[in-house]
Amino acid sequence: MPTALLIVDHGSKREAANKMLEEVAVILRRQRPDLIVQIAHMELAEPTIAQGFEACVREGATEVIVHPYMLSPGRHAAQDIPVMASEAAKTHPGVKWRCTKPLGLHDKLGEVILERAGLSLSPEPQSKPV
């Protein structure tokens, strides 16, 4: 059963922000070349969720996993994206789909924040006064 991962962000009027999601897809494709990976924006830019879902099916997906690329389980991740995905799935009745939780809390996010801040995962040992 070919599986697709549809990564969905909010979408932005700034093209650079939307391009970043494309780079996330490149990373995921490199890490899992067996997956169909597509992107979509909830609003403000294309591809839309319906267009992204269609692209997954066009590549042969029989299952689409929709992932809200958001930190918090707010209204968009918990309600809007699942509803939009459900609408998109209606045009592909033979395709299974599900929506994941957003990024949320995860230890690896702490690692990324520390890296961005230029800090190590382990504190530097404190030197003892002489």
Walk me through what this model shows:
The protein has 130 residues and is α/β, with parallel strands linked by helices. It has a single domain, classed as Rossmann fold, CATH 3.40.50.1400. 40% of the residues lie in helices and 18% in strands. It has four helices and four strands; from the N terminus they run βαβαβαβα. It has helices at residues 15-31, 49-58, 75-89, 107-116; strands at 3-9, 36-41, 63-68, 96-99. A four-stranded parallel β-sheet has the order 2-1-3-4, with helices on both faces. Helix 2 (49-58) crosses helix 3. The chain is elongated and about 75 Å long. The model has no long low-confidence stretch (mean pLDDT 94).
Question: What key attributes describe this structure?
Answer:
130 residues; alpha/beta; Rossmann fold; four-stranded parallel β-sheet; 18% strand; elongated
SSE layout and pairings?
Elements: E1 3-9, H1 15-31, E2 36-41, H2 49-58, E3 63-68, H3 75-89, E4 96-99, H4 107-116
Parallel strand pairs: 1-2, 1-3, 3-4
Helix pairs in contact: 2-3
The SSE order reads EHEHEHEH
For the record, the CATH class is Alpha Beta
Mean pLDDT across all residues, rounded? 94
Main β sheet profile: 4 strands, parallel
In short:
This protein is of the alpha/beta class. The relative contact order is 0.17.
